[in-house]
Structure formats: C-alpha cells, structure tokens
C-alpha cells in the first residue's frame, strides 16, 4: 500500500495523509491534483506533495480520484509555497488557495471552451454515397448550397485528409442559417462534435525581434553592467530615473534569455500597466507572451496555468503579483518593474506575502537571475544594493537627452489665507493647465483620495456620518448618490438632515477625485476629462479604455489616485499637478515620508516624457519640509541618506525585521484582554522588542475590534526561532477559554 501527503486548501497547518487505492497507483504522483475526502462529509481538491510507503499511526482514507494526467505544480513551486507558509506564518492551505485559480480547486468548476464542428456522416464514406446525397438535395437549394460548400471546405480529396470545419465557418461561408445546418444533421448527412478551443488570446502573431529598438550609448552601458552584475550577483537593481528607457533594456535582456531557451517572468505592480507594456512586448515577442492577472476571468487563468504546466508553455509571462505563483519549468530571468510599489504586498487574506521577496526566493530555487527596476527604490532594496548584497546599476539621464521636469512648489496655506485658491487649485496650476491645453498638450492631476468628498459634515454641530461596523468616516460618492465605507464596502443613503441637531446644512469636506473632476469640468468646460481610480477601473476593459483614450489624446485631462503614478508613459503630458502633498506626508506610519517621496517623484515623472520639458506644480501647506526640497531637486541620495539615518536610529527596516501581530474580536474588552495577555507573553521572550498592544489608526473594521503589536527583530536574529515563539504565544492565548474565539494573525515584513 502506498500513501501520499496532500496539500489541501484549508486554513490548517501541515499536510494530510491518504492511502492510494490500487486502481490509482500509477497516477498518484507529486504535483498532481486529487479528490480527497475530508471530515465527515466534505471533499476537497488537493495537490500531492509526497508519496511514500510509511503507514501512519492512525486510520487513513483513500483518495477518491486523481484529476490530472500530469503534474500541474512543479517541484520549485511546491518548495516556494512551503517557504511562503513558513516565512509569512500562514497555513500551507492558504498559500494553495491563493495560488490556484478557482477552476483548479474544484473538479467541476472549470469547463473548457468549445466550438461546434461538422464532419461527414459515417454513412457517406464513399463517393457514391456522397453523390446520392447530393441528388437527394436537388429540391432543397439552401441545404444543397451548404452541403456543397462543406465538401469544398473540408477538402476531402487532399492528401492530408479532411479538414475541420466549424459550424460558424460554414454558416459564414455558405451564407446559411443554423436551421439549414441542423436540417443536414437531421438528414444524417453531417454530424456534429465539440472541439476545445480555449479562451486565451493567441493573436500575438509571430515573434518579431527585429522590431526591438536599439539601445543608445547610456542604455547599452547599463545593459552591459547588468550582464556583468549577474556574473557575481543573483539580484541586480537598475536604478533609473523616470523615462530613462528601462523598458527597452528589459526587452533586450528578455531576448537574450530566450536565446538561451529560458523562460522570463515580468512582474508589474498594477494591472493598468500591462496595457502599455503588453503592446510593446507583443510587437517583439508575438505569441510567445502570456499575460496573467486577477482581472482575467477564472477560466482564462485556468487555461494559462495549464499551458504553463504543459510541454509548450509561454516563454514570457507578464503579470501582476499572483503571476509569481505560476508553474515555470525553465525560468532564467525575473524582472520586477517599479519594485518599490506596495501593490506587490498581499494584505488580505493570508498569505500576506510580498511578490518581490517571493520572486527572489523562486529565482534562487531555480537558478534564475532577478532584475529590480525603479526610479525610487524602496529603502530595503536601496540598502541591499548600496551594501553589496545586490548588484547596482544607475541611469541618471532620461532617454534622448530629455530634461527632468521643472518642479514648482506652491504654498496653499498662504494662498488659502489670501483667498486665492479655486477649490483645490492654485492660480499657477490653473494657468499651467490652460497653457498646456492651448498648446495641444495634456495634463495629469494627482489626488490620492477617491470619492466626491472624504466626508460630509453638519455645519451647525459638526456631526460626521461614520460606518456602523468600522471606525472610520464615510466617503461621499456623488455619482452613486451614496456614502461608502472604503474599508468594508458598506453603503449608506445620504442623510437629508443631521440626526443630532436636525440641520439640513450638510456639506462635503475636502476633495476626492470625483469632486476634483467636477471642478475641472467647471473650470475647463472645453476640455475632455477622465478620472482613473478604483471606482472607474473595476474591469479590465475600463483600465484599457482609460489608458488608450488618454494615449490617443481622446482625453485632455486625466485625474487620478496613485494608479496614475505607476510607470505609465504618455507622450503629450506637459503638466502634472500634485494637489495635496500633505495627505501623504501626514499618514501615521513610519514609511510615510518614503511613500510620499516615492509617490511625488513618480507622479512628477509623468511630465515631459516626449517633446519639450515638462512642468510639475506641487501644492502643499508645508513647503519648508526637507522632503519637499528633495523632491524638487530630485535629490535621491540626500533623501535616502536622511532616511537611513532615521531608520537606524529608531530601529526600523532595513536595520531590523518587523512582524505585526493583530488580534480581532467583536467584543472590544475581549480583544483588549487577549492582546494584553499575548503582549505579556511575548515580552517574556522578546523583551523591549515588543511594542504595544495598541489600537491601530482604524481600530474597528467589519464589526471587529482590532489590537496591534509590533515586534522588532534585529538583523541576524534567528527568524525561524522567533516565529516559533510567536506561534507559541498565539496558541497559548487561544487555549484560554475566554479568548478561544479571538482571531490572531501575523503580518511579516509589512509594506
């Protein structure tokens, strides 16, 4: 009797052992999916991780079925999934749930896409029978025409044998209806069958490497340094200013990897970016390029997964965070563009992994090289590159000799005092946008808050509507005519009067992207305006439409949240306005200044990428802050030097590892008691490395009260041992009957 250890998509630790019935002996191999009974009446689809002959010391059940003819998960994948579970303190089953598309987690959820094909009925197997059939159709003109057309299309007299003819092809060629085809089937002259065609867009065409643009002298030098860096380092950082031509260097590196018969994984932080990058890559790679992200349907993701696990996978995968979990059989190069982006970090649900770290680990398991690209590297990457852990290549100049944009700081506090602001716009920004439009250019306006107004307020008593299940104020969405909680998604009707004082004078406070859009259309009635935020980009088509319209100059002014900062490349943008830098600078997080600097530098980089030098208007109430001056001067070295001094002084990454511990419960007193108990335990083991417990800035979400602890672990400490103690603390608290219903989870290396 053989036994297998199976990974199941359940939030429990470890693997589950099953016996293999004799009928399935030859199929139960590592990496294949099985149908496995679980508990009294449940059945799950799991993946075989190990096969062995050791009988467990407990009763085991037989697996019910092996679902695959070959492995759908590689050895490297299975090792990566286990690393993700261990490092990020998640159940292995949670990793499996995050990795597999839904259609691979259920034996009946995925249905292949098929089309109806036609074939000659078996009874018409010789010419004599075919001629007889033609004679029978002499009085049925439409059927005769369709049947004759079918015979011509199937090319029965060729050496290759009959060609496949689809029902739709016959209807289009013969100009007949489905009823006519059905009549031929009913008369037993044709038979139908279904052929699997798949959902993947294989219209990429033949690869055209000759379409690759030649590198200029500066790019060629950087390309050579990257290749040299890969000889001694597994990871290299390409630190290039915005519009320095990093993408063209990536394409040359991809072609070099393909010449070596290697696969390439190209990760981007946002789905929106795949629209522009896909077009550039498809022009060169054609059908060798596959795309994978969450905006694709589940069935499409299943088909991409199966293709990657087949003998003829895509050579290059372009995708967002989840693409790192796909199967690769000969991975040679991983490119992580805009590596600083927090979108690479999975927040909820578990596993709370960082795709950059996961990709670096996958590459180390497969012998691949990793190229990190950014104009504003994250603090940890900058430190690793500057201390020699990673290779480092720098591009200081924009492609084609273009100048960096001129950044002008506007003191909005002073202008507001003098009543010179037009809503969120300074006179300088308005005049710059008008000049850009008059000159045939475009403008981007950045406001990192969606909705119409961040909140509404009673002008009489100051009442502000709040979410009933979260500790946050509600955002007013004018287009939807409702108030929305951006944490739980719950919506509420807009009140007509204040419930506290009865006043009907309720007004919006602040500006969200929707309100900015209204104001822009009022100030520039002749301009074509679009908005790009979570509310307007919920589908794949919405992303593509907004970006293609702006790229084709069907839109003059694009208003958006942080989405517009993420590497998008538009030729005619001459003005960028950062409406409120303070909203980023004042966020209660140790990374606030790093995020603010990155965001402002990236948004500013959208200006003047082609043609004349661009202009950036940076509006802030705190123009005296050093970080503002560093953005204006593009003083990356000065910013990172100050940042490292601060992080070293206060023991924050990259000079330590952070692990956040969260406790959640519907009863606030229970959450507090459990947090205090766990905090006392952790301090016994970790001492002053533990901060808290405290309430986070948003201390209640979806009716769950939250407490948070921060554990700071200095570099060099045994992280595996530290995780064991954290798990021990969690389990000890949960064994207390007062706290057994508390939810406890960890966020390792929070972004």
Count the beta strands.
31
Multimer state: single chain
Decide which structural class fits the backbone: alpha/beta
Distance between the termini: 48 Å
Approximate strand percentage: 15-25%
Describe the global form.
Answer: globular
* Rg of Cα set: 30 Å
User: What composes the largest sheet?
Assistant: 7 strands, parallel
Q: Number of DSSP helices?
A: 22
The neighbouring-strand order within the major sheet is: 11-12-10-13-14-9-15
Q: Name the helicity range.
A: 25-40%
Low-confidence stretches: none
Mean pLDDT across residues = 91
Description:
With 751 residues, the protein is of the alpha/beta class. The strands form seven sheets. A seven-stranded parallel sheet has the order 11-12-10-13-14-9-15, with helices on both faces. A six-stranded parallel sheet has the order 16-26-25-17-24-23, sandwiched between helices. The model has no long low-confidence stretch (mean pLDDT 91).
